[in-house]
Amino acid sequence: SEHPNSDELVAEVARLEGADGGGVATGAGLAGLLAAVLAVCEAGDHVLCPAELYGGSVVLLSKELTRLGIETTYVPLAELYDVARHRQPNTKLVLAEVLSNPLLVVLDGPRLARACQEQGIMLLIDSSFTSPMLTRPLSWGADMVWHSATKYLAGHSDVTAGVVVARDPALGQRLRQLATNLGLMLAPLDSWLAVRGLRTLALRMRQHSGNALAVARFLTESPAVAQVFYPGLESHPGHKLAAAQLLNGLYGGMLSVRLTDDSAAAVDRFVQRSRLFPLAPSLAGVQSSCSYPAATSHRGLTPGQRAALGITPGVLRLSVGIEEPEELLADLAQALG
């Protein structure tokens, strides 16, 4: 049910995103996606997504919502901008991420928004990796912005939550109605904790981003690392787009690496040796952590599907926290040494 704590959280996120339509806070990140899709789609409708989409979103869309008669297809992000080619007569929604998980492919948000508007299709943007400090997708022309508030918005690894805000008040009201009717609403204490986290969001994102850039630059020089995926690096193929599109000169706190020994055993050695990057199921907390996509977010895919996305056995995702950067670099040096 609705309550003042949830209202405060949604109002603050809506203010940061410039969302006049308000929205809803849910008990988990994927509950927010569920509310967003059901606010727009019904049985017989179609959703279009990039092939690089987060694995948890893929599971919800392709294994659960298909049972309700909502179909989803996936195309490479580079092709997604041609919405007219890939849409179906019943396509109602396009979903995309600002930065893909785990390889940090950069979305050209304004370009995709224009393509959706030309086709009369709504656009939902997952901004969980960036937060409103780095991107405000409604300004591009998106219709809804979705956050796994478990991540940067709350920021302290003590809340599971989702927030969806909308441009249109009618859509915002529909989101609230759905979440209430389906029991998706966020509890009062979790709402309060998330609001507490928002009060330091700007400070945290600056430190996350600065530390991640330092870590990325350090790792590019390590012989134990074959490839670093971070849009703040000039070598990243999406760097120019990210520099033009992301706000405040920040690139976020998430990065991934492909180890030179591209194997699960090499990843395991790193995890066993690192002190400051513990293996964790989530991300974006104040403390650094790491994740192994092949066994977590993308475990539902076949090895061939993962390989096609570039998620090889030696890919490791790092969530860079707000610790002192010198301590993080020293830990990485000994863990990779």
Secondary structure elements and pairings:
Blueprint: H1 4-17, E1 23-26, H2 29-40, E2 46-50, H3 55-64, E3 71-75, H4 77-80, H5 83-86, E4 91-97, H6 109-119, E5 122-126, E6 144-147, E7 162-166, H7 169-181, H8 188-198, H9 201-220, E8 225-229, H10 239-245, E9 254-259, H11 264-273, E10 289-291, H12 303-308, E11 315-319, H13 325-336
Helix pairs in contact: 1-8, 2-7, 9-13
Q: What is the terminal-to-terminal distance?
A: 52 Å
- General shape: globular
Helicity, in percent? Answer: 25-40%
Identify the strand order in the major beta sheet. 1-7-6-5-4-2-3
Work out the strand percent. 15-25%
Task: Summarize model confidence as the mean pLDDT.
Answer: 97
CATH class categorisation of the largest domain: Alpha Beta
Q: How many DSSP E strands?
A: 11
Spans of at least 5 consecutive residues with low confidence: none
The named CATH superfamily of the largest domain: Type I PLP-dependent aspartate aminotransferase-like (Major domain)
CATH architecture of the largest domain: 3-Layer(aba) Sandwich
Mind describing the biggest β-sheet? 7 strands, mixed
Q: Report the radius of gyration as a whole number of Å.
A: 19 Å
CATH topology heading of the largest domain: Aspartate Aminotransferase, domain 2
SSE arrangement, N to C? HEHEHEHHEHEEEHHHEHEHEHEH
Instruction: Provide a count of the helices.
Output: 13
Domains counted in the coordinates: how many? 2
Give me the secondary-structure category: alpha/beta
